[in-house]
Amino acid sequence: MTQPSLNYVNCPDAAGGHRMAYWQWGRPDSAHVIVCVHGLSRQGRDFDTLARALSEQADVRVICPDVVGRGESDWLKDPMGYQLRTYAGDMLAMLGQLHAQAPVASLDWVGTSMGGLIGVAVCGTPGLPLPVPVRRLVLNDVGPAIQWQAIVRIGTYLGQAGHFGSVQEAADAMWAISQSFGPHTPEQWLALSRPMLRRVSEAADAKWRLHYDPAIAVPFKQETEESARQGEVMLWQLYDNIKAETLVIRGRQSDLLSPETAQAMTQRGPRARVVEFEGVGHAPTLIAADQLAAVTGFLLG
Predict the structure, then answer these.
(1) What is the pTM of this model?
(2) Kindly report the CA angle at 11 between 10 and 16, in degrees rounded to 5?
(3) How far is residue 17's CA from residue 100's CA, in Å, rounded to a whole number?
(4) Cα(296)–Cα(146) distance, rounded to whole angstroms?
(5) How far apart are CA 127 and CA 269, in angstroms?
């Protein structure tokens, strides 16, 4: 399968519910499901290269959701819903639908940044109605403790959806704030950038904007250093509950996941294995051959 199919799941909320989109690769009735969840301002097509590689190498169903407020998913009526609790609940609804469509016998999770924190919540909360426990967990450049300066940096651009005259102009603007992703060819960066854009209107000459609801920035910008510390305590508790075999990927120049936090993750909870990539900050895109091999080897090995 060289292109994914687009699917939807209905998710409950206090305002009457919303619809979350997800991209499906591989054999639709495969019992081995791998969920790949993107970062804060990204969307599910970030995982095209990884999903294609996984589905070519094994009999798997790779599921890449657009977290609510992003990509093809609905925007929430209440922006304060853009938080971990909502996202984890939506993933449970999606997994329930997938299990009803074709029973899930093996479940793995790949999460980049925010998607990794959602994975920590899903794997570390006791008693959740998962089809099966998560077997293997990849946390891509994220852990229970997040460096405050990275939160401040992300807050400087989050919510600015922009108006761009062309896809290339938008790709150039995104590259200006994303060079920490590490080296990419122009073709790779353009492929990553296209799904990040939507037309402002139906007009043929309409400008382009980023794909997400600018209101995802509302709860993010209410975060304080004190509330971040409180959240860190909760996330470590969840992490310590994780039973899945865990791989932590870290960009060696990351300003979000510190070496100290990565080291602590090897010594508590699931006692993760850590793989670092030189010349990359926050966050590896899992497109470079060495990054791709680390993840596919861990999940399929």
Answers:
(1) 0.97
(2) 100
(3) 20
(4) 26
(5) 17
Pull the structure tokens for residue 118. 């959602």
Residues in the chain, overall count:
301
Task: Provide CB contacts within 8 A for 131, sequence distance 6+.
Answer: 33, 95, 96, 98, 99, 103, 104, 107
Long-range contacts of 80-88 (CB under 8 A, 24+ apart): 80/218, 80/219, 81/13, 81/14, 81/15, 82/213, 82/215, 82/216, 82/218, 82/219, 82/220, 83/219, 84/117, 84/118, 84/121, 85/121, 86/13, 87/114, 87/118, 87/121, 88/118, 88/121, 88/122, 88/125
236-285 pLDDT, tens per residue?
999 999 999 999 999 999 999 999 999 999 999 999 999 999 999 999 99
